[in-house]
Amino acid sequence: MGKRMRTRGDRWGTAVVVGGGHAGLVTARVLADHFREVVILERDAVDEDTGTHPHAPQGYHAHAVLAKGSQVLEALFPGLRAEMEERGAPVFDYGERIDFLLPAGLAPRCRTGVRVQSFTRDELERRLRRRVMALPGVRLVPSARCEALVTGRPGSVGSVTYRVVGADAAAGAAAEGAGESVELAADLVVDASGRAGGLDRRLADLGVPVPDKRVVKAKITYTSMSFDRPEKNPPDFDIAYQMTFAPRVSRGGVILAVENNRWMCSLFGFGDEAPPTDDDGYLGFARSLGNPHLAGQLEQRERPEAVHRYVNVNNQWNLFHQSKNWPERLLAVGDSVCVFNPVYGQGLTVAAMEAELLQGMLTELRVKGRGLDGLSRRYQGRVARLLVAPWTLSSNSDLMWNRDGQPLPARIAHWYNKHLFAVSARDPRVWTRFVGVVNMVASPAALFHPSVVRKVVAQALSRRGAPRRTPS
Predict the structure, then answer these.
(1) Which residue from 133, 123, 119, 118 is spatially nearest to 20, judged by alpha carbons?
(2) What is the rounded CA–CA span in Å between residue 307 and residue 274?
(3) Minimal CA–CA distance to 216: which of 400, 346, 399, 406?
(4) pLDDT for 21-63, tens place per residue?
């Protein structure tokens, strides 16, 4: 006889999430289905109305939730897309409302069947935090710095130690024990503290060797601003984009229609091509791009706006799945595991997919009546497999900016992509395949279908010896 699914009373006890940003929130949403209590420790003084916060500096820049990420978020938070749309975040077909400048020219404006929505990270985190905090058994502890992981039985994390700081800005349970170290017992700990959250240090304190990281330097600088969209004469696009492409297209940018009738614009440049932060310099950089729509909308601003710069964009993968002594009852998610160059828009989607993966694994354990032991290593291994495709895309592209140390697989991928983009610019069918892959709703194998390979090879042969074209 099969084992029955556990009832609410059969849930595990307490789960602790270190980090209350996007990855922590979507993970807490999943844990609330399986634990009687979920405690979120967030080092910033956030509440249900907080969007962007100090330890998420990338929140001031353009973000994208790819189509796959949107599907996962809608499954975890039903009605989220409609809720965001009511705030003015547009929903549209990726091919119909995006003015996308590829290295070889403009992409076709055609229906792809891939539906996306554009909004700010500020609005997304606010909506997610409100929903998660409303779940039974979920408690947020703001202004809480995680100091240490504490072992229970050997090789297993059994509690976390944290300290509440700035209690005047904290609320509720956060004020209890302010300024003192608090030990919180946990059946499961999830670290979503991010790139600089200190997980490496906490593991070292436990005596857990941390494998070497994979690091690919992106050398891209982002400079961003948000401003009002004029109500008169709206353009025929919701996103205008120019991609960078080594070695010749070193400047790029994106402008997205977001909630509250605003534009979010991020300009980016490789190496010494950093976009200026002054108003005139910012507009001048936009005018230098091959896609004129970014500068065209910037020119319609009625007043100067705050400009934010972000430079810490290296690809970085912590290979936790290779650790032979990875602790039981500890999971790592989001930027704690892998950070991507944000130009590819993968981070938010990958974090959502990691939460979806965890949902499936926890459900399976409960259906089979099994405990949590063994989950941690299996989960980190499956996360690693999930990361292979997005990591390969971002790291291979960024490796091509470095004239030295370009591995053969990256050079082959770059050659293929160059000619793939040339085909995509004139072939709606190939462009539609590309859209599905970059939105993670289609396998990368779709770009190596025989019909696509034939066109790519034919393009390469026809261009042999011809002068190169670049968008700027």
Answers:
(1) 133
(2) 13
(3) 399
(4) 999 999 999 999 999 999 999 999 998 888 888 777 677 788 8
Q: Taking a C-beta distance cutoff of 8 angstroms, is the pair 217, 311 a contact?
A: no
Q: What percent of the chain has pLDDT over 70?
A: 93
Using CB atoms within 10 A of its CB, is residue 40 exposed (0-12), middle (13-18) or buried (19+)? Answer: buried
Degrees to nearest 5, angle at CA 468 with 466 and 471: 145
Distances (CA, A) of 60 to 13, 120, 218, 261, 422: 36, 8, 19, 17, 33
Q: Which two tokens stand for residue 325?
A: 């002594």
Q: Tell me: the pLDDT tens digits for 370-401? A: 999 999 999 999 999 999 999 998 888 888 88
Give residues with Cβ within 8 angstroms of 424, minimum separation 6: 102, 104, 107, 108, 430, 431, 434
Q: Say whether pLDDT at 465 is over 60.
A: no
| CA atoms in the 13 A half-sphere facing the CB of 202 | 26
Amino acid sitting at position 74: E
Question: Which stretches of 293-446 are assigned E, i.e. beta strand?
Answer: 308-310, 315-318, 330-332, 338-339
Structure tokens given for 308: 């934010």
DSSP state of 44: S
Alpha helices in 262-307 (DSSP H): 279-287, 293-298
Return the structure tokens found at 20: 């209350």
- The amino acid sitting at 146 is C
Tell me if residue 83 falls in helix, strand or coil. Answer: helix
> Beta-strand (E) ranges in 213-270?
213-216, 220-228, 239-242, 251-258, 262-270
Dihedral sign for Cα atoms in the order 245, 247, 248, 252: positive
* Selection from 276, 345, 316 nearest residue 121 by Cα: 345
Provide CB contacts within 8 A for 348, sequence distance 6+. Answer: 22, 63, 64, 65, 66, 69, 121, 124
Q: CA neighbours within 13 Å on the CB side: how many for 405?
A: 8
Q: Single out the residue of 401, 361, 342, 415 nearest to residue 65, CA to CA.
A: 342
Q: How far apart are CA 61 and CA 66, in angstroms?
A: 16
CB 265 within 8 A of CB 191: no
DSSP state of 365: H
d(CA 350, CA 68): 9
Distance, in Å, from the CA atom of 315 to the CA atom of 313, rounded to the nearest integer, reads 7
